Amino acid sequence: MIESIRCNMARLGAELEKLSSVTEATPPAVTRVVFSDADLRARNFFKDLCRKANLRVREDGIGNIFARWQGSDPGAAAVGTGSHTDAIPNAGLYDGVVGVLGGLEAIRILQEKGFEPRRSIELLMFATEEPTRFGVGCLGSRAIAGTYDEAKILSLRDGDGRNPSEAARRIGLSGEMNALVLSRDYYDAFVELHIEQGPVLERIDLPIGIVTAIAAPASMRITFEGEGGHAGTVLMADRRDALLAGAELALAVDEIARATGSPDTVGTTGMLEVFPGAINSIPSRCMLGIDIRDTQLATRDLAVAGTKLTAREISERRALPLTIEMINSDPPATCDPRIVAAAERACEVLELKPLRMVSRAYHDSLFMARLFPTCMIFIPSRGGVSHRPDEYSSPEQIARGVEVLALTLAQLAE
Ligand SMILES: [Zn+2]
């Protein structure tokens, strides 16, 4: 076991700054939608850095990048780490990036320490973690885990009508979607460093979170069809107003999420689209985008079922036809006790006090956990803020995260 290690924050800080300038928004805001020109520039920047660190780089058809530090036992399953660099419009510079460039820095400081891994250590940059282009998050890791097969991936479209293969080819990727799944013995362990994106670590003033479970997300689109008409001439008794059904359902989602008995259930109606959307016109259609999560599948599914049931009840009572479309419904992940223990041991060596915690946001690790023993390491986010230009973790916080990651990887690869 390595007894000390030091992140080169001057080097990593310069690289973080460089990558933050690769944006389609006005800095400090970062916009890097997958398969855009900014995404392509970020990929090239990352691949160059990996090659400079003597990592062997390959890219799959959907754009996941794998950079491998070859271990002394080439037959042994590798140890994986990594995250994403795509960013939603007007985001910050740390979400995902800390796990990618920080993962690279963890590898470099182990190299500089003279560490010789038995298992190969492989750094990943996942493609299309954010749902901006195709409406579904974590497409790269879903493909790796086989939860989305080729047909499902090719059924997706972006705003220009391109499927992921066509969009990937536009930036020079092969776009082949038929061989993305990794076998279960590809990684012996996977660990992702990420910013918390919540307020817990900052509030209790601890530098490191070790994630023991990742909450299960589900999302759906529910659409009520009503009857439009003139806001002045159609009398109240004759109306079938689709927005009123939507308003009832949005209130119900909030109630249902509060009533499952689990403090971890959360329900959000984040989208409400009203058609035709004119002040003097009765809404003829109302679409709600609803997101429900929990760390326990049973209570999550209870809330999802309750939402559907309530939607049907509203639909019947108001005589408004209804369509329910599930966008995704993923199980939660339990982190691997062996990796949790390795991360805790790393904290002990570095004299840092970690907090065991739950990840309420989901990440590529949720899908990696389908195939591989997985864990996440969190660092604090200032004010719990994320997906905004003022997202911030300090250089010291990032350096501690990198050092914990490095010592965790070293134990797993020994
Ligand atoms: Zn992220």
Count the domains: 2
The CATH topology annotation of the largest domain reads as: Aminopeptidase
Beta strand %: 15-25%
Tally of strands? 17
Secondary-structure content class: alpha+beta
Q: Assign a percent range to the helix content.
A: 25-40%
Task: Spell the H/E element sequence.
Answer: HEHEEEEHEHHHEHEEEHEEEHEEHEHEH
Oligomer: single chain
Radius of gyration (Å):
23 Å
CATH architecture of the largest domain: 3-Layer(aba) Sandwich
Question: End-to-end distance, in Å?
Answer: 9 Å
Which small molecules are bound?
A: zinc ion
Unreliable segments (pLDDT under 50, ≥5 consecutive)? none
Commentary on this structure:
The structure is a single chain. The protein has 414 residues and is of the alpha+beta class. The chain folds into two domains: 9-215 and 332-413, Zn peptidases (Aminopeptidase, 3-Layer(aba) Sandwich); 216-329, Alpha-Beta Plaits. The protein is 35% helix and 25% strand. Strands 2, 3, 4, 6, 7, 8, 15, 16 and 17 form a nine-stranded mixed sheet that branches. Strand 2 and strand 3 form a beta hairpin. The relative contact order is 0.18. The structure holds zinc ion. Residues 84, 95-96, 129, 194, 363 line the site of zinc ion (ZN).
